[in-house]
Description:
Elements: H1 14-29, H2 36-43, H3 47-53, H4 57-71, H5 73-78, H6 85-94, H7 106-113, H8 120-143, H9 148-166, H10 171-190
Amino acid sequence: MAPGGRRDSLGRGARERIIAAAAELFARQGFNATSINELRAAARVSKRTLYQHFESKDELIVAYLAAYARRGPAEAVLLREDLAPRARLLEVFTALAAPGTVLPDPIVAATAEFPDPAHPVHRAAAAHAQRFGSHLVALCREAGADNPDRAARRLVTLYDGACCRLLLEDTAVVIEDAYQLGVAVLRDAID
């Protein structure tokens, strides 16, 4: 029992601290290069507490990807009701430079670090990517695209390509190029 009679066997906010530490370390070092000991130390939890919340590092990565997919910058843009569908489709590119974004998109990075389609991290990343693509299809349809599936597929290709290029090049140039190519895709699909 903690002081005051509280029971804090897992530590107050430990799960959130672990996921926050994972986000920072995974962005800086990658998934495979980040050790459990580094995660534990950054989250300020014992190894036992970490394993009480996540049975394995893979399970932690899957939880982190799920949290990112719910609260990441692209998802935030796609859910904005104050923007027209076409604007939301284009703003996913500028969201790649949102404040606090250190890794362009961990979903894309996870598929690169875990290429085996049977691996749980790859499966989780693929499922999140599928939901993202489906969301783009719905927005393309809402925006009036004559072939929403094709337009969304092209936008996803641009988005994923921009994520990869952001690992190598200047952010502003990559985002501007992706944005302008997105404009061309939507012009071809809608106008």
